[in-house]
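Quick review question:
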């Protein structure tokens, strides 16, 4: 039995109370879904700046048993009082509320710092004061900056290339200080290129996979900057859920650390395009001849990215269950259904201020 299966069995036998910040977002709603599947009690916190009520509706499924074990607090992570209310009676925090866009952080660095640093510190302080056992938070591969080495190992980071990267590194520093100074156990998860159901294809900072699915189905070009041989370590959201649960259940000696969360493999943008196109072509044969549109390479783009996941394997028991191809097989149907829903109804506009 894998460590992940052991942890799931443990949680089923000994249910706990969890806070998921950013619960209405892409990753947050997947975490809520998985925790409710395991019989856990979940508090969700979101201000709906980038999250959607429909994501939580999917996770709750209209099931009375799930609804009884879920409580939603609409609030901003920069509000310490709201954070204290959210942390009351909680065993574990999975912190995923953030301003998660490099381009937006370049446009609005003060906002990025306020949300990602001040907001992070508010949730962390509230968790400390509430006696939370374990604080797991979303870190980022952006922290590696201009470090040239491959694969990326957790202790070898370069100079930050965006305000967003600075904020995520500061999160790691604060988490370490709070564990050493106050005793709250913390674990950071450096996500690489995450994709999966509930990932939003709209907006100027949307991720490449849902954008290409939309463009293929609507007849728009799928643009690639450069020759398409740029590579990324794309990681399906189910692997992220696994990493969070493993981090929450890991022994104390595995805390006060950060871990790469990825597949440990490189996929070029050319390979990714053809995986998506061929997956969609199974039901849309007219797509079989579609090719990407190549444009000038973009200055500053990283040529290759790949994670070393050895630390997560050794100390957490992490073992990716889904390759890129596996994840796309699961995700494509959801992307297609989501696009059909958007075509039938007006696009839902996020509510409130920044999460």
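Suggested answer, residue by residue:
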């Amino acid at each position: 039995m894998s460590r992940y299966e052991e942890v799931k069995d443990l949680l089923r036998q000994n249910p706990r109370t969890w806070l998921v910040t950013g619960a209405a977002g892409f990753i947050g709603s997947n975490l809520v879904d998985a925790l409710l599947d395991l019989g856990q009690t979940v508090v969700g916190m979101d201000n709906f700046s980038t999250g959607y009520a429909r994501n939580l509706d999917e996770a709750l499924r209209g099931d009375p048993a799930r609804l009884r074990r879920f409580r939603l607090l609409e609030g901003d992570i920069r509000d310490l009082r709201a954070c204290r209310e959210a942390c009351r009676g909680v065993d574990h925090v999975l912190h995923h509320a953030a301003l998660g866009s490099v381009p937006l952080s370049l446009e609005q660095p003060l906002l990025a710092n306020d949300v990602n640093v001040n907001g992070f510190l508010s949730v962390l302080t509230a968790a400390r004061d509430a006696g939370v056992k374990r604080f797991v938070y979303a870190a980022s591969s952006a922290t590696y900056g201009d470090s040239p080495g491959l694969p990326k190992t957790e202790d070898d980071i370069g100079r930050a290339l965006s305000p967003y990267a600075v904020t995520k590194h500061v999160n790691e520093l604060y988490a370490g200080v709070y564990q050493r100074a106050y005793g709250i156990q913390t674990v950071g998860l450096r996500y690489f290129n995450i994709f999966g159901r509930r990932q939003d294809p709209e907006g100027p900072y949307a991720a490449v996979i849902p954008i290409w699915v939309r463009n293929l189905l609507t007849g728009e070009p799928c643009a690639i900057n450069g020759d398409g041989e740029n590579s990324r370590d794309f990681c399906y959201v189910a692997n992220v859920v696994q990493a969070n649960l493993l981090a929450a259940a890991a022994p104390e000696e595995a805390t006060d650390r950060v871990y790469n969360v990825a597949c440990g493999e490189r996929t070029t943008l050319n390979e990714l395009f053809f995986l998506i196109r061929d997956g969609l072509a199974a039901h849309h044969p007219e797509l079989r001849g579609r090719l990407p549109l190549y444009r000038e390479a973009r200055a500053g783009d990283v040529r290759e990215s790949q994670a070393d996941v050895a630390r997560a394997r050794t100390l957490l028991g992490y073992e990716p269950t889904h390759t890129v191809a596996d994840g796309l097989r699961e995700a494509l149907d959801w992307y297609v259904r989501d696009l059909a829903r958007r075509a039938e109804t007006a696009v839902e506009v996020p509510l409130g201020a920044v999460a």
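Why it works: Residues 349-355 have pLDDT under 50 and may be disordered. Residues 3-192+237-263+306-321 form a domain with the Rossmann fold fold (CATH 3.40.50.720).
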